[in-house]
Amino acid sequence: MWLYAYQCVILPLIGEAIQSEWQKSEKSPVMAPQSSKMADESRKEGIVEEEVIRRASLSCLEFWAGAKERKRDENGGLVDKKQDDTTSIVSASIDKECLVTSLSQGKTASIQGAKFDFSTMVGSEGNERRETSSLYQDEAGLPDSSSMSHDAKVLSVKILPVGPQNAASVQVVVEISRQNDIVEKPTILATIHGFLTLLKSSNHRTCISAAFSTNTGTILPEHFNAVTKLTWEGYCGANRARDGAAMAKVFHPSCRLTYVQDDSMVAVVPQPAFCAKVQHRYTKETMHQPYAPLQAHPNIGMHDTLQDVEFATPDCCMVTLKVGHPPCLWSDLLTCCYLGSDQGWWIMHKSSCHEEFMLTDDMKALLGAS
Closest Cα partner for 230 from 323, 342, 338, 312? Predict the structure, then answer.
């Protein structure tokens, strides 16, 4: 009897259990490699995109260092004398709307990317500066590439992990030197630190903004405090309060908002227009108007986050933060510079991308009742 029960009942149950486990083990090896393959492909895409950004950044630095022979075009912009593939890539890496902030020798300048070169940041005040600058210029007063060399490095690349990931910041350092006929070792003329902001439009990365400084001072906690006050209390505070006048106190007059539109074109919004957007965000016919009932909601700022403060020098840093106004949650790259004791800290450039603002259930209910 027991033998019959074992053969007819117990053995079939054991067989079914073994078969079930075998089927599970057959499925998992198939699913795991697929998941792993997708992760590997994603990592590879990220590595490739980072390398594209590195190359574009180095091309910009090479152009600004005068490593390629250049001349002025009819509009005063710098163009290459040699129109080969290499030099055209260098020029194409600098967006036509690019603006460069230069902090050197106690002076500040905002220069179009096509007209900027590092020779303006080399040397010191007085005769030494004039002597050094002349070494970089030909008879027409243009950068003379034969008298200088440069060593450019990309220290870090940050791609905002939002949507199509079309905004990125790059921290760089450039050492400018000149050969000395007497001493074999080159004379270092300047060590320049800074940030580039690159946007991806039509699958091409271009530099829309850059800030450079020759400041060799120590970065201190007080610098972080000042920038946090500028960006969190000043910028985010004005944004949350929809106060255009307050925004104008932290958003430099030369500052622009830049972003990639749905048509893959770069949009450039000057400071006055941006401050007006802040002031009238919910009152004019914009995408925010349907969400006007949420302006006073206690959780309207729940996604606002100060994510990162990175210093290149004591007077030049990049801030990454999030600020939300339904239906959008923006991720911002804010280039911040200290313009001297008389002006203090300012936001010199802003690039953004956005994702969906996730509403809470009570926010949805409030919108449904209005």
Answer: 338
Same domain, residue pair 284 and 351 = yes
Closest residue by Cα to residue 78 from 57, 58, 100? 100
Greater pLDDT, 293 or 76: 293
Q: Give domain status of residue 242, yes or no.
A: yes
Segments forming the whole domain that contains residue 122: 52-213
pLDDT per residue over 176-195, tens digit each? 988 766 666 778 889 999 99
Single residue among 213, 246, 276 that ends a domain in this structure: 213
The amino acid present at 174, given as its one-letter code, is V
User: Residue 309: which residues within 8 A CB-CB, separation 6 or more?
Assistant: 224, 227, 228, 231, 317, 318, 319
- Report cis status (omega within 30 of 0) of the bond before 327: yes
Long-range contacts of range 219-227, CB-CB < 8 Å, 24 or more positions apart?
A: 219/311, 219/313, 219/314, 220/314, 223/311, 223/314, 223/317, 223/338, 224/309, 224/311, 226/338, 226/344, 226/345, 227/309, 227/317, 227/319, 227/336, 227/345
**Token couple for 368:** 């449904």
Per the document, the length of the chain is 370
Distance CA 249, CA 106 (A): 22
Q: What is the pLDDT of residues 249-297, one digit of tens each?
A: 999 999 999 999 988 899 999 999 999 999 999 987 889 999 999 999 9
Q: Is 57 helix (H, G, I), strand (E, B) or coil?
A: helix
Cα separation, 111 vs 97, whole angstroms: 11
Give the Cα separation of 235 and 242 in Å (integer).
Answer: 10
Global pTM value: 0.79
